[in-house]
Amino acid sequence: MVRSRFMAVVVAVLFAMAAGAAAANAATVYFLVSEFPDQREHGDSFVLPLSDDNDIAHARDLVERGRAAGSYLISADIVAGADNINRNILAEGKPAWSWHISNFDQFGDVSIELTDGWPGFIESDVPGWINNTGGGRVDNDGDGEPDGPPPTVGHIAFWSYTVTAELTGPPTDLSIVPRAVVPLPAALPAGAVMLAVAGAALRKVL
């Protein structure tokens, strides 16, 4: 009887932790993309949203180890329009760019020269960049048909930019996470509490 009650408590705790972990995995984590410390020329940055666990883990590895982590280039699609998330975090006032990431492709080691550039260069002519690097169209006006021509989806893979910091805070007002602070998985505190509850329940049963 005692053992069956204990097992029921343990199973309940595991289910709760699994649900919390699933919710955490579905969350978007934001990262700062800027120039390598030894290649600073433009001093600007942009925001990279990631939701895949493997991508998030690699981005955090890049923050910690830089080029040594490998696959440091960010390959992604962009579209025109400010989403109030993609900002130049390194600039005073964190001004929003008039373009943003629409789809993260992958981390890589090489890219074609056509997609090399910097955030400020895109900002100077967003339609031109999208037209030069475009490979698709989106339905921005909601009429059920892809916009264009010309293409409405561009592509970036800047050679001297990589993930340099993790960001925290509301998506529209992100700030850099200090390097000394290691964010905990969202499910961990809840799991610890549930284990404590399970322990207390077991002591009562015994």
Key traits:
4-stranded antiparallel beta sheet, alpha+beta, globular, 3-stranded antiparallel beta sheet, 206 residues
In brief, what are we looking at here?
With 206 residues, the protein is α+β, with helices and mostly antiparallel strands. It contains five helices and seven strands, in the order H-E-E-H-E-E-H-H-E-E-E-H.
Itemize the secondary structure elements and their pairings:
Layout: H1 2-26, E1 29-35, E2 45-50, H2 53-65, E3 73-80, E4 99-108, H3 119-124, H4 126-133, E5 154-156, E6 161-168, E7 175-176, H5 187-205
Antiparallel strand pairs: 1-2, 1-6, 3-4, 3-5, 6-7
Structure notes:
With 206 residues, this protein is α+β, with helices and mostly antiparallel strands. The strands form two sheets. It has a four-stranded antiparallel β-sheet. It has a three-stranded antiparallel β-sheet with strand order 4-3-5. It is built from five helices and seven strands; from the N terminus they run αββαββααβββα. The model is unreliable at 6-25 (pLDDT under 50). Strand 6 (161-168) and strand 7 (175-176) form a beta hairpin. 34% of the residues lie in helices and 21% in strands. Helix 1 packs antiparallel against helix 5. The chain has two domains: 1-25 and 186-206; 28-179, no CATH class.
